[in-house]
Design brief:
Four copies of one chain form a homotetramer. Chain A is α+β, with helices and mostly antiparallel strands. Helices cover 25% and strands 30% of the residues of chain A. Chains A and C meet through strand 3 and helix 3 of A and strand 3 and helix 3 of C.
Chain lengths: 256, 256, 256, 256
């Protein structure tokens, strides 16, 4: 379990997203309200963003400390200004190293992704089957040992044969459904992906409770989060649905 | 606020003290029950211990990670076997670096010490007055910037002119009382100290609620803790009292 | 001993300063050429910069890892674009924690500073005398225990009564000279300071060899460094001199 | 490239092995003499040891900092006393996270192992072929992404069908030779392994220079190291040979 944040719209300072809201990602780290598993999100964190004006691969900043203990983040949050941001505070599986490689977002070329959820007993269940079906490129991409990174590696592969990012996420979930059934393995897969031009999110689980996912649309931006960060007209993304935030901020919700 | 543990008696594996109890120090790190301030104790931790058979300066192991995320501690807890142990999980003051220098226990020659509590607005109140009265030795000893380390440095000085460790702790608290009054500064000062031959603890506060402190005596050992770690005949150390655990495991409780 | 870099001029990506040159700060970290003490600069590092267009307090990023091992820096170096940058790779005094608080640059309000050099046996010599003469503000500012930070705290105080940053640096060096003589303590003090509108540097030592400091002026910028980073018309700042890089990129060199 | 140390014999303090020798592992970290690739060994380190008297799984302590910057190690080196020790200072492949999972020694049940050398372009060459032939147990064991850990995982598998540890190491090298030839991939594989009852080492390379490996036998112990640590009757292990240090300290050298 983690807490996710995706932002698409007018460029804003990271601060506005990560620290300033009443129930900011920092607060969700030590006092989350809607976790379906785990107590805290204090096992590292990460932020990824696209440049507001310049064409460039996205940028990431990750740390293994609890987000509230990272002094560098205070400077970076005052400096970084972006119109497309993904952020994550992590609740790790017990007994694994809180290595940087296990912190999100994951990045590949122009693609960023974050995941909230888990594959049950991952190393004993879908770990090897998921790896075995990866292309060499996606296989070699993997640096850590989280289920999240293996799902992201699957997205990398599916993107090769999909019409767009929404379809790639849909196909990835189908791969998980099939493997989950074949190996009788429950999983939950709330994901937020971006290529800088759009934001795509999923809310999905099989055999375990579906984690929450909310979105908020206003005139100049869309927020997608695990938990509402302030009072406002937040809407729950329906279970088993995909959300696409297009470049013009129009939304599509499609059942999975 | 932190959570403290002191053990004196038959040598035991660290594991037995830190991880195995139902409400172990690890659990108190992410789910404490009796905090008078703060929510978690996830801003680093530390363990100090004396050799079970060999005469030597005590040993310390400290880390800035939450205690539950330190994989090395799992090995060390299975290896280290000691009859005199002090341990601490830390709840830091917001905005300060979670540096190693700010993690407890503090060690000076054969002395180990841990502190739970705080001096209100420390840097603006007693910080400079406390330093100004230190000997050069105690002054130069200080590595970090916590109120706790400055209290420990005062113990180092008071020990020079005290008959024993209990008296040194008593004198240290008197220094705090006087400075606290002179500068109208509330503070709380639950401490556990040891020189390897005895354990001394205090429960004291001035102008703020006194943090809890419990002890448990059985045939071969005495435990002193912020929160009871398992079902048993724990007794609350009365407010404004000193507890001395003598080498023969006899206890003295004296009012401050 | 550390290696210093100061940049003032047209906004550039950090990458251009830190990683890309042949003898970049990264290379100087593991293979420095002109150290007067120490072998490596692998005990942490830091970068500070001012916003290229927006009025704001400067930003800092520091880490205790060797600079070559920081994956986040790769992203930040591609993202951060600034016309006024200070950076430092650190060679620590043995036996002290490589805490974040001991990493440079130091920042206070709009002021950034870095220091290469050392005060001999600092904790036993000028540590307490330097602290004793600080204002409460500068005293409370100090987070770590390096000589460098204590010199920077003295700058904070001297700035209050100086006409400009150059004068404040000059006065700070005079304080060091007097204290150094009074306590028979050799020291070296190559510093680079900025307030975002200018860069000021010193090359000075008393009783020990003066560390190197070079500058390079071209049409749109001035670089000040411990070691030349690429082939070019680098000039050694004369010993016991101050260098001022004015806002219009004009240079002043004045003897100390 | 890394620097290795194996010790078997009378129990000694870690200090005696790691810090006190003239050319100790700490010195080899910042000033190695016989590296065939790389300049430093400052990308983390680790120590593994067996209990001197009690039957138990071995213990490990690893850190991503340079070994000279680990303050905890100073305490542990004064405390830990063992008759069977493996230690490693690491020189990482550029661009990979210096994660704990990539630090050695590796441990599986009673087995400890360290590796000096590399598989050329590992992720593009033998990474996937090596994983594909692993048992599920060895596959799931892997936590990081080093070639070293994949070689160790192969040892885990080979041990299942080998008469002893020496044979398991020999079989592992044969696997590497075959895969190396099949994929035209040079590699070097200096390894030290132990199960607490013996020490086994290899010196081997294919298509690249063989790293050095020395041993020193005295009345009560045997040392195996990448670089001699002090003046003494060190002997170079011949290229393409295995060294077995039996429980009675007798040595066997057999060609691979």
């Amino acid at each position: 379990m983690c807490r996710l944040l995706g932002y698409f719209g007018q460029p804003v300072l990271l601060d506005r997203l990560i620290s300033q809201p009443d129930h900011s990602l920092v607060v969700q780290s030590y006092q989350p309200k809607e976790m379906t598993a785990g107590l805290l999100n204090a096992d590292g964190f990460g932020v990824g963003w696209y440049h507001a004006t310049r064409k460039a691969e996205p940028f990431t900043y990750r740390n293994t400390l609890p987000i509230w203990n990272d002094l560098n983040l205070q400077s970076l949050s005052r400096y970084v200004e972006s119109g497309c941001v993904l952020a994550n505070v992590r609740s790790a599986t017990a007994g694994l190293a809180t290595d940087l490689s296990n912190c999100q977002p994951f990045q590949h070329a122009s693609l960023l992704g974050i995941h909230n959820g888990f594959i049950k007993d991952f190393r004993q269940t879908l770990y090897r089957p998921m790896r075995d079906r990866l292309s060499d490129l996606a296989y070699q991409f993997i640096q850590g040992l989280t289920d999240s990174e293996h799902i992201f590696a699957t997205v990398i592969d599916e993107l090769e044969t999909s019409a767009n990012l929404t379809e790639a996420l849909h196909h990835t979930l189908k791969v998980l459904m099939e493997l989950g059934e074949a190996h009788q393995t429950p999983f939950s897969a709330n994901l937020i992906l971006s290529d800088g031009n759009q934001l795509v999110a999923s809310r999905y689980a099989q055999g375990v409770p579906t984690p929450t996912l909310y979105y908020l649309q206003d005139s100049g931006s869309v927020l997608v989060v695990s938990e509402p960060m302030f009072d406002g007209n937040w809407k729950a993304l329906p279970d088993r649905c995909l959300l696409t935030v297009h470049h013009d901020l129009k939304l599509d919700i499609t059942p999975i």
